[in-house]
Amino acid sequence: MPFPGRSLCGTVNGMTETMRAISQDTLGGPEVLREVELPRPDPGPSQLLVRVRAAGLNPTDWKHRALPGLFLPAPPFVLGWDVSGVVEAVGPGVTLFAPGDEVFGMLPYPHGHGSLAEYVVGPARAFAHKPAGVDHIVAGATPLAALTAWQALVDTARIEAGQRVLIHAAAGGVGHLAVQIAKARGAYVIGTASAAKHDHLRALGADELIDYRTVDFADAVRDVDVVLDTLGPENCRRSLPTLRPGGLLVSILALRDAELPALAAERGVRFASLLVEADHEGMRAVAGLLESGALSPTIAGVFPLAEAPKAHALGETDRTLGKLVITVD
Ligand SMILES: NC(=O)c1ccc[n+]([C@@H]2O[C@H](COP(=O)([O-])OP(=O)(O)OC[C@H]3O[C@@H](n4cnc5c(N)ncnc54)[C@H](OP(=O)(O)O)[C@@H]3O)[C@@H](O)[C@H]2O)c1
């Protein structure tokens, strides 16, 4: 089925309703993304139909757009996992939300994609109520990256006040939210980022910053309780000596490396590899942090739906500070 979860079409007076969406027929560069008309989905059991107002982009969007052999079958498909919008309709059995509610969430990763469209369906419990004081752009920027940071640092590492945490690519979508989540838990935060981004990260709460272009973090950092790796297996290997005995390295980019658990065990430290999951409790926690001001995503750029190719091209430079967001009128 080309569009998972969207076999049911909305109809009015027997006429199929359609919606604009960004789709692709082949893998390739940003130019394969095209604006198309598709049938509007209907919510199935336990699902919401959400009118999308904003959809954050993540590196997995451009990876899935271009690379074969990731998680999805071949295109055509509509990408996009982050969403903030308004509940248009609820499927049977939904008790937490009603039409008109403002919600935000991450569609189930990897197979629930489809938020680069005017409407999307997803399980009700992938969403939380959007705090009233937070706009759709900020809410749409947040879910996947914040849930990743939350699931790594809180659910997996269970970081505590006073612990030392090393966050790689601290200026990235995940990294800059991880800095804020770690600070909200009372941790001491060390981040790696290029020097031009240090002031911004200090303002977000980072205690120590390492310019990875001039300083080797593997020499500069010792005795951390937790490392969050966002760069890959080689970076994981180089990070192991920075941990205190019994410390934990959580990677979000080393799923296919079978050697790391043993390498960590040889050094008396622990290793975990994480793939973000749709998470109602996590979304509620993220909503609370946004509402309190403890979490505030940096918006690197905002693009209308039709300019999704431009946003993808900017994102895949791997240099953006914070999050790119697509808005849907
Ligand atoms: N497993 C999962 O569930 C999961 C979830 C989310 C993301 N991910 C993956 O995690 C990775 C990071 O995601 P993201 O959204 O944070 O990416 P991102 O926002 O695109 O990251 C961009 C940032 O990375 C920094 N950077 C690049 N190379 C660096 C290096 N060698 N050292 C330190 N910083 C460096 C850049 O800062 P400078 O300009 O200062 O270099 C830039 O600010 C991606 O590969 C993504 O696919 C996995």
From TrEMBL:
Keyword Amino-acid biosynthesis listed: no
The keyword Protease belongs to this UniProt entry's keyword annotation: no
Stored CDD domains: MDR_like_2 (cd05289)
PROSITE patterns: QOR_ZETA_CRYSTAL (PS01162)
Residue ranges occupied by any Enoyl reductase (ER) domain in the UniProt entry: 28-326
SUPFAM superfamilies: GroES-like, NAD(P)-binding Rossmann-fold domains
One GO MF term: oxidoreductase activity
Listed InterPro entries: ADH-like_N (IPR013154), ER (IPR020843), GroES-like_sf (IPR011032), NAD(P)-bd_dom_sf (IPR036291), Quin_OxRdtase/zeta-crystal_CS (IPR002364), YIM1/Zinc_Alcohol_DH_Fams (IPR050700)
Highest taxon of the lineage: Bacteria
Signal peptide, first to last residue: none
Keywords per UniProt: Oxidoreductase
Protein name, as recorded: NADPH:quinone reductase-like Zn-dependent oxidoreductase
Upper classification of the organism: Bacteria, Bacillati, Actinomycetota, Actinomycetes, Mycobacteriales
